[in-house]
Hints:
Layout: E1 3-14, E2 18-33, H1 34-54, H2 58-66, H3 70-106, H4 110-117, E3 132-148, E4 160-175, E5 182-196, E6 201-218, E7 222-231, E8 235-241
Parallel strand pairs: 2-3
Antiparallel strand pairs: 1-2, 3-4, 4-5, 5-6, 6-7, 7-8
Amino acid sequence: xxxxxxxxxxxxxxxxxxxxxxxxxxxxxxxxxxxxxxxxxxxxxxxxxxxxxxxxxxxxxxxxxxxxxxxxxxxxxxxxxxxxxxxxxxxxxxxxxxxxxxxxxxxxxxxxxxxxxxxxxxxxxxxxxxxxxxxxxxxxxxxxxxxxxxxxxxxxxxxxxxxxxxxxxxxxxxxxxxxxxxxxxxxxxxxxxxxxxxxxxxxxxxxxxxxxxxxxxxxxxxxxxxxxxxxxxxxxxxxxxxx
Length: 243
């Protein structure tokens, strides 16, 4: 009985100087019931069963690893002999190259040696351009409703509400996440209600409150996190240095 209705708009822009990502979701309304939970758990069991069936037995894998074939042993012996022959040939070539280098260096004139010693050309590398990074993530309104539809038998289509969670706005801004992370997160008017069957009405479960978190990172002071909590009865502010 799940139902999700929303409009999501995304944009991405990249260049050597800047990388920008923007995502906006408008009015996400989600219905989730007990039957949906049973479906999710059934899909999880099917997925785990498929993974187990696709995996080779542990005993067969261990047997293959512990019992090398005769062909592999013969190949290893041949490879060892070839490596010894290659090493011998390489040693002979090194001796020959050393002798040739000694004779050529002795025939080099003083002028040539002086010119080689004065050669100091260093290629100039272009300065690396620091790419600016920016992310916007906005959700304008979220409502999650939990329904009880576990009744069976006659009238099994009946369902009753359990709880409702609401969020007026979620807004996240992040800059330079691969270097010096800076950003802030804002949650506006988070609240929840539950259904009282005795009164046949919804009652408050979580009073409306808001939260704002700011992250500032500098090369001198490291990362600092500052948070604010606010509802109708109290206001709280905290500060923390992570590193």
